[in-house]
Each structure stands twice: as C-alpha cells, then as structure tokens.
C-alpha cells in the first residue's frame, strides 16, 4: 500500500498537497502531520478530491 504525500508550491506561492490513490487507506496520524482531517470513509475519488481541495486550498482573502 502506497502512502506517498507530495507537498509542493505553485507559481503563485500557494501550497499544494497531492496524495496517492491509496489516500483512503492512509492512517490518521500521517494525515494529521500534514494538517489534514481523515477522510477515510469516503468512497468516491471525485468526492475525495473535492474534499481534499477544500482542506488544501482555503479561500484566499
């Protein structure tokens, strides 16, 4: 089971977090280390990506 988490900065300086396909299987401690809440119960990848974007890209004031 892969647990790759990549953090990188975009050209506009925003921080992105990209997770592997097995994100649903990642343990809560690893997610907490990146400030993400566990979303392990979600079944659909589209829903997972949408939720992750909401956590990763808060609205810029």
Oligomeric status: single chain
Order of helices and strands: EEHH
Unreliable parts: 39-43
Count the E strands. 2
The total count of helices amounts to: 2
Instruction: Calculate the terminal CA-CA distance, rounded to whole Å.
Output: 38 Å
Quickly count the domains.
Answer: 1
**Order of strands across the widest beta sheet?**
1-2
| Morphology call | flat
Averaged pLDDT, please?
57
Which radius of gyration do the C-alpha atoms yield?
A: 12 Å
Instruction: State the secondary-structure class.
Output: alpha+beta
Compact summary:
With 61 residues, this protein is α+β, with helices and mostly antiparallel strands.
């Amino acid at each position: 089971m892969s647990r790759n988490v990549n953090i990188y900065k975009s050209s506009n300086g925003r921080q992105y977090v990209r997770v592997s396909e097995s994100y649903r299987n990642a343990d809560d401690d690893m997610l907490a280390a990146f400030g993400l809440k566990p979303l392990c119960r979600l079944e659909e990848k589209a829903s997972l990506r949408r939720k992750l974007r909401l956590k990763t890209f808060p609205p810029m004031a």
